[in-house]
């Protein structure tokens, strides 16, 4: 099911290239394509949306198989949806269910089924099916070849002539599907200016560690820090040519479920045009290439990291992050109740953050916190839910973090990040005295074994960490626990949002 806002978008885009949209984890929003527009309207249409609309990237190709949004069928009452005629009795299944069934087939059977009808041809050429086959069968040992299907065929059947084959695809007339079209649309939409203009984070340069602790860490407030990594060699050296040469052809980095060399990854990121580009996110980069670890240092504000008492048994805590424009992380809370800092070395990132007591619109965490259902892609969230925050009293904190800048992400804060251009960054999660009690409480939850991440020993992490802290800092836990109780009593008298917002105008007392 598509939101009213999304339906309206489709009707505006179709005159240009005829395309639509989707929502993965929220099945109530995705599985019912034939819905009356008036029946489902979670958000009112805003005047700026209607007047300005959305823009497609100038480099965007037309949809590979000529798939059109379902709204186009409504505007052409004489047309018959070839999607239904080609599926036969299976036409009653949702597009998502059809694709889930096809996901059980291997490449050969998908190729055979593609010859059954034009409808099956379109479904069996859905790129995520072939992406899954590549990642599951080639384990990162591939070179991206323009599309996931071409990549699979060229790797598994190297003698096959892809350039003159059906792998390139042909157009299908009168095929209407919001679900299949949506991935194309999300991959090729430009970020709207309205999505980038809000900048309400506190920006600081040259502050002392004490000021950072007292004004931000103690109050669990985000802040963007300028000038604190100017001495990094990484800031001067790390571009793709330097990194490829330094890491060579033997070192592989974690990219989603596989590992790839930097050369292969950049080859992929240069060509790919998909809704969710794969993100290089490796926690062991400094062990793999020690020089990478020596070319940056932890900013002075974050050097107290109590997880360090665990030595080699500490959970994963630092990552190198590389991705093309459009890649990023959908809404999540950082692992193990830790705080984090993120330093941009090349490129720029759009951040949207919500405090622990405000769940972002469109995000549905399970009661125990183990799972989170949310829109399938970051762009989908912006299209469907960003506008809902426009009139919220508790607006999200937002900013664009550029090269040389560092953002502090306090524990428990929901955050979404999208790269606005090819970006390289370093991030680390840490535990300071200001957050130690929260981390210990998290680690001893009844379902901690399902919540804890980044370690092989999820069950015993609490005992190991607590014992190590007590051995290294006797009495520290009791003292901090008492201070935390006093702090909670004080906070009950004055809520977080009352402390940072001006009640008369409903705006932040500070700006980013």
UniProtKB/TrEMBL annotation:
One of its GO terms (molecular function) is metal ion binding. Its cofactor is Fe(2+). This is F-box protein At5g06550. Residues 287-447 form the JmjC domain. It is found in: Nucleus. Belongs to the JARID1 histone demethylase family. Keywords: Iron, Metal-binding, Nucleus, Oxidoreductase. Pfam families: Cupin_8 (PF13621), F-box-like (PF12937). Transmembrane segments: none annotated. It comes from the Eukaryota. Its main location: nucleus. Residues 87-133 form the F-box domain. GO terms for cellular component: nucleus.
């Amino acid at each position: 099911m598509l939101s009213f806002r999304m339906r309206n978008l489709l009707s505006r885009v179709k005159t240009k290239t005829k395309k639509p949209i989707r929502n993965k984890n929220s099945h109530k929003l995705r599985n019912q394509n034939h819905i009356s527009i008036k029946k489902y309207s979670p958000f009112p249409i805003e005047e700026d949306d209607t007047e300005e609309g959305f823009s497609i990237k100038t480099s965007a190709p037309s949809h590979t198989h000529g798939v059109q949004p379902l709204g186009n069928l409504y505007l052409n009452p004489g047309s018959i949806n070839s999607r239904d005629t080609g599926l036969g009795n299976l036409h009653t299944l949702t597009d998502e269910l059809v694709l889930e069934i096809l996901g059980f087939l291997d490449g050969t059977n998908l190729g055979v089924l593609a010859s059954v009808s034009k409808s099956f041809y379109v479904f069996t050429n859905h790129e995520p099916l072939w992406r899954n086959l590549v990642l599951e069968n080639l384990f990162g040992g591939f070179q991206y070849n323009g599309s996931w299907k071409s990549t699979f065929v060229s790797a598994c059947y190297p003698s096959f002539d892809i350039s003159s084959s059906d792998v390139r695809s042909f157009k299908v007339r009168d095929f209407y599907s919001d679900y299949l079209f949506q991935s194309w649309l999300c991959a090729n939409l430009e970020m709207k200016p309205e999505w980038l203009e809000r900048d309400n984070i506190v920006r600081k340069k040259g502050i002392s560690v004490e000021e950072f602790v007292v004004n931000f860490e103690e109050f669990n407030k985000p802040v963007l820090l300028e000038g604190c990594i100017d001495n990094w060699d990484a800031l001067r050296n790390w571009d793709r040519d330097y990194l490829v040469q330094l890491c060579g052809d033997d070192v592989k980095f974690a990219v989603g479920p596989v590992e790839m060399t930097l050369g292969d990854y950049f080859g992929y990121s240069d060509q790919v045009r998909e809704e969710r580009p794969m993100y290089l996110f490796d926690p062991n980069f400094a062990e793999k290439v020690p020089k990478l670890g020596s070319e940056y240092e932890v900013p002075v504000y974050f050097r107290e990291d109590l997880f360090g008492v665990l030595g080699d048994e500490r959970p994963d805590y630092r990552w190198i992050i590389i991705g093309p424009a459009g890649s990023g992380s959908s809404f999540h809370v950082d692992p193990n109740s830790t705080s984090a800092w993120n330093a941009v070395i090349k490129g720029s990132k759009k951040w949207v953050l919500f405090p622990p007591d405000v769940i972002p619109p469109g995000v549905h965490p399970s009661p125990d916190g183990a799972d989170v259902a949310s829109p399938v892609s970051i762009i989908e969230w912006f299209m469907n839910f960003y506008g809902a925050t426009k009139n919220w009293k508790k607006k999200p904190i937002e900013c664009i973090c550029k090269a040389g800048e560092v953002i502090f992400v306090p524990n428990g804060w929901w955050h979404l990040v999208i790269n606005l251009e090819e970006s390289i960054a370093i991030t680390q999660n840490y535990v300071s005295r200001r957050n130690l009690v929260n981390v210990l409480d998290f680690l001893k939850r009844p379902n901690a074994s399902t919540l804890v991440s980044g370690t092989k020993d999820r069950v015993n992490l609490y005992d190991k960490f607590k014992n190590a802290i007590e051995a290294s800092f006797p009495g520290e836990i009791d003292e901090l626990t008492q201070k935390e109780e006093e702090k909670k009593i004080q906070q009950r008298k004055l809520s977080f949002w009352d402390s940072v917002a001006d009640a008369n105008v409903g705006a932040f007392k500070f700006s980013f």
